[in-house]
Amino acid sequence: xxxxxxxxxxxxxxxxxxxxxxxSYGRFIDARERDVLRAWxxxxxKNTLELGCGTGRLSAFAATAxxxxxxxxxxxxxxxxxxxxxAADAERLPFPPSRFDAVFAFHTLMHLEPASIRAIFAxxxxxxxxxxxxxxxxxxxxxRGLTGRRDADEAWxxxxxxxxxxxxxxxRAAGFTSSxxxxxxxxxxxxxxxxxxxxxxxxxxxxxxRLPSLSSYLIVGFAKx
Length: 225
Ligand SMILES: C[S@@+](CC[C@H](N)C(=O)[O-])C[C@H]1O[C@@H](n2cnc3c(N)ncnc32)[C@H](O)[C@@H]1O
Description:
Blueprint: H1 2-21, H2 24-40, E1 48-51, E2 64-67, H3 70-79, E3 84-87, E4 100-105, H4 114-127, E5 128-140, H5 141-147, E6 161-162, H6 164-174, E7 178-184, H7 194-197, H8 201-210, E8 217-223
Parallel strand pairs: 1-2, 1-4, 2-3, 4-5, 5-6
Antiparallel strand pairs: 5-8, 7-8
Helix pairs in contact: 1-3, 4-6
């Protein structure tokens, strides 16, 4: 499964940014994720690591970024010379214990099987210093239960939805103690006409922050004690 996912992103790399983030829906998501990272990450990216960085859309928030897709990393390197990009499986990171103050992973865990997600949490815990934070998103199972699953070309795509409690349990099993949560996409933004989307971003941020589980995506900050 893992090989299939990485091969998919290797093929998609040249068109990933245009196909996923150039329209008003993608820009809506991108802007909200940047706001959360700006608010929750240390201001200086020097000791921040990104996992599953893909083509580097959010990598300016991290001095170090990793992915297993070599084609995606080539695009990321061309776009951002300030970040140090490395090819690595997020389940086995080439960094010493307590190397980072913060780690983040967006649009990545949701594609993976629970065993891989648990392995990534354990590895992230290892490379974080005490007091460090891991910020990650996942599809909200509560919301998916209300609205049903969207069709996807690949069975693994966004296969893993979790409740906030299930996500917290995985964090706790890895050693993380506390968490903060927000949401993304409470409004049915994909059903709105293009021109109505961006003007509603602040309302969606306000609503999804108060009702993370009812949003399409949960974004959680896990703390290492
Ligand atoms: C949907 S893309 C997200 C890219 C980027 N985070 C973003 O939000 O634009 C998912 C990325 O996770 C990477 N990925 C999936 N499983 C991985 C693993 N076990 N180790 C490293 N990267 C992985 C894929 O290669 C892909 O680039």
